Structures are given as C-alpha cells and as structure tokens.
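Re: the 351-residue chain
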Amino acid sequence: MARDNDQSKFIDSSDFLTVLASEGVEFLLSRQGKVPLSSCGGKTICLFFSANWCRPCKTFTPQLVQLYDTLRTRGTELEVIFISFDHDENGFEEHFKCMPWLAVPFDETLHKKLRIRKRREELKAIDDSKRQGGKLEQLLAIEGRDYVLSRDHRKITVSELAGKTIGLYFGAHWCPPCRSFTSQLIEVYNELKTTANHCFEVVLVSTDRDHKEFDLNHSIMPWLAIPYEDRARQDLCRIFNIKGIPALVLIGPDGKTISTNGKEMISLYGAKAFPFTESRIAEIETALKKEGDALPREVKDVKHEHELKLDMAKAYVCDCCKMRGRFWAFSCDVCNYDLHPKCVEGINLNL
C-alpha cells in the first residue's frame, strides 16, 4: 500500500498548470513562501505524490533530492511539484521541510480531486493503448482467460484470430434493431467465409440483460463471443465509447482499429466492403457511380403502370424476379414497387 503513494510522473507543464488554475489554485509553495504558477511555465514538471507517514516515501525522497540538485546544476529546465498524501497540514509541513522544490498548498479536497483526475488519466491511457496498440490479446483476453467462445461453447484461443479482420459486434437479443442487423451480418459473414478465405471473424460483445438472453442471442449466431460473465464486455464498451446498439467495430489484421462504424459499412455495401478499408470503400463508391451514370434516370416498364425512377437503396426485393437487390433500383414514387435494372422491360424516358 505504501509503495502506491510514492510516485513521480513527468508531464507537460501547461496541462498541469491549467488543471491547478481551474481548481482555484493561485500559487505554489516553496520553502521561502508563495510562488506564482507562471514560474513553472515552459519547464518539464515532475509530480511527486508522497506522504510523511509513508516510510518508503521518506527513503525515496533523499534520492530524488540528489537527482533534482544534479539536474538543476546542469541547467535542466525541470521542476518537481509535491502533491501531499498526508493526513493533515502538520504532516504536510513536516514532510515538505526536506524538499528543495515546490508544492501544491495543502488542501484535502483539492488533493483528492487531483488523485482522481490522475487515476482517470491513467485509465484513459490504458484504454488508448489497447485500442491503438495493435495487440488483439490486450483487447479480447484478460488475466485467466485467453479464449473466446464458439456457438457450441468450444474455447477458441485469441491467438488463433491473429492475422484476421475482426468485427466486434455490440448487441443484445432484447433490441429489435440488433435482431435486424444480426440477420444482415450473418449473410455477410457466411459469404465472406467462402469468398474471403476465412480471413474475417466476428466476436459478440453482449449487452444482454442476463445469461439466459445471452445464450439465446449467441445460439443464432455462427460466430464467437466474449463469455457473458467476463468484465471484458464492459471494458470493450468503454474502450470504444459505445453509446448505442447495434454497433460494429472493425479491427484489421494488424490488430489496429479500422472503423468504429462497421454497421453502416455492412448496411450499405454488404460483403463487397471487405476488407473494410477506406480505399476499398472508395473503390466501391467509384464503381457504383460509374454504374449509375450508365443507367437512365427514368423508365416506363411494361409490367407496371407508373413511371419508375432510378434510386439508390441499401436493400430491396425486386417485384419482378423476387430476388433481393442492393444499390441501384428503379422505384415507383406512387406505390411500393422496385425493379432490378436488369429486370426492366420498357423504354428509357430520361437519360
């Protein structure tokens, strides 16, 4: 416990001074008296969290004093600022006597806020590292669990997913939009299993209300899942700032995040979007524009009484061949009628 209170951390001076000013701190303390915050401007600041009652702190402080004096003698633009963990002001003053640097005035409430802020920053840095670090194990595994679950409850080690594009699917069985998107994702998943040479995998990060719902949800999915009882589910929601479901985060073969908006990619382009990179989406949009430019704007089809206009649709069912369609369609403004461009039998009214 004591070791946790003996910490030094180098930070950017402007950030820390801004934090102090926002909390109403107008000055720092030296052994000679008050020092303006501006005296630390432009210097590297080392925050020293310590307490008079902590024996390891008392042992470490002389070592830090020696280092501080050496660096200052060399002309290093460095300042140490003591942030007290002492129980009262007397303990703070007694401890500060042996320090040649500055200190934040003793204030229990302020010091608690600074400690909380520091811990939040540390946790945020850990989350950022997991999100950007390119290590799948850090994202999907925790101490004591190095696997994810298949639908039939087999344990698949996270290391087996290395080199694949991974979709982290945040969803729940109780959510109707999730059930709808699950159907779309299953179709894409099954198609990519054959066309992408098994280079795509999905991992469910469940937000179901209980284990029974989770089991029901996962039972209809052909992919993997984080165990329901695992805290990693909540960690991943926080790491990727998931505010609503369904959501799909796409992780590249290098372990780094490709997109946090995979749901839109799947909804718009289906399996064509794989491997979900910006360059691939640009290719699709260029090809679609070229295809659309070659089609008439309006047609009159012998199978329908109204004029049909060219439209872009995420998905539809052709009223002629009864097959599902995506992207370009000829649609009726008067009634719910859609045709594949290849199913049109009529004349072009407007190119």
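The longest strand covers residues 307-317.
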